[in-house]
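Hello,

Our lab assistant flagged a job as stuck in the queue for most of the afternoon. It eventually completed. Since we weren't sure the result was trustworthy after the delay, we are filing this so someone can double-check. Below is the sequence as submitted and the structure that was eventually returned. Let us know if re-running is recommended.
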Amino acid sequence: MQYLSLLTPLLLAIYPVLHLFSVNIDKLLPSGLITPLCIAIGIGFGLSIISALLYQDFEKGCLLANLIFLLSIGIGPLFFRIENTLVGKYFLDEYRILWITLEWIALLGFAWKLRPWTYSRQSNRVLTVIAVVLILFPALELCIYLTIHSGFATISLPSISRHAHPHQTLPDIYYIILDGYGRKDVLQKQYHYDNSAFVNYLHRKGFYIADKSRSNYPYTFLSLASSLNMRYLDALNDSPDQEADGTQMILHNQVIRLLKAEGYTIIHLNSGWVVTGIDQPEADKNYSYKSLNEFSILIVKTSLLGLYYTDKAYAGTQRDVILYNLGKLRDIPPKTEPTFTFAHFVCPHPPFVFDRKGKLPKRDTRIRRLEADWLPAERYVDQLVYISSEIQKVIDHIIKQSDIPPIIIVQSDHGPACPGMVEHPSKDIIWQRTTILNAYYVSNRIKQHLYPSISPVNSFRVILNDLFDYKLPLLPDKNYYAGPIGVLPYTFQDVTNL
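-- returned structure --
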């Protein structure tokens, strides 16, 4: 019966995973729980066994593991909140070795003081009750959420009648999102950077550049939900859970469903960002760099392990994901059937992990993803220069290896936010945030339907109309602002006529 004591550290080990998942479930899939839960169970089991061997007492070993997990549950989030303040970040970064040393002294002292304790079994029973109560809260939240949101998002998608293919051969389609990439005129005026080299390169390759394009929405999950479903998000105004419905619209989007129905193989490159950093459930093939995604990083950062996850480790993770996806775009094997590849790069969006030559920037310029992360602006420009040069290589390779001229959309989901995002923005803030790069490598026939101010909501309407004769009407190109990120519910302000 003593082995039942092992249940308690396992419950306490998985509690943070379930809790954080329940808090962020509107952006995640249930399948995203599997790996973190398995790792947490492994840590709980391993720590219990090691502690039991240390004491030569199974009950006391489990008790030590229980107390360490409780300490992590209480202290980990506190350190995380401290680190996400300017003063706290400074003291944790500058004296990290000291904090780690103190952490080990505390843990070893704790283990030493526990040696003479004779009430291990009774203590474990009490902690078992505590663990069960803790687990019940996120478990119930998850059950309620999954019951309410079973099936699909509350936002219904319009049906589109299909037609016979007017063309015998279909091109591969690449939808490349460069997160936060500003428009040429804004980069010149606001950031004093002339992006003519990249824009001229696109022109030479045959791209149509919509040089007056603006994003439909100011945040990634809203923008992608709109562009991938070819519609505005008016229905989200009445949604009880805007982020959940917006996320579901990305994961089960209309563009991918239509292309699958037309015989396309869907390829998705996981970005590392919480929504596009998980496997696309509608994709035939998901490519993912084997590293921590944002949810896994959050788990680590809110535990006692957070002190070991430094800025350098965080920057390395982001760099590795971007470099992996750049390489994967060049390495996707040719297929007999047409493919649709969706690649979202969290770049030039912060964190700033590349200088102009692709090197890791100096330590004082690597900052976490907070509102202030867009500063300093020169680091944003450096990262933009680097990703531009790498995307050129990707484009060259895609065009060269394609037997049938492909369709390539290089588009940003929104512009930069170096001035910040506020509830009542100035014209300058709106202008920077909504002006975007929007370039199309398409046939001359499709180019006839493009125009300088086309916005992402109409991108696939134009393309699908040409490929499949859908006869989708083009929507008015509107632009909406939605206040500070994370402040729900979002109220969409029409800023089209700025």
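-- support follow-up --
The delay was a queue issue, not a problem with the job. The result is valid. Strands lie at 173-178, 208-209, 265-269, 285-287, 339-345, 407-411, 438-441, 480-481, 493-494. The chain is about 50% helix and 5% strand.
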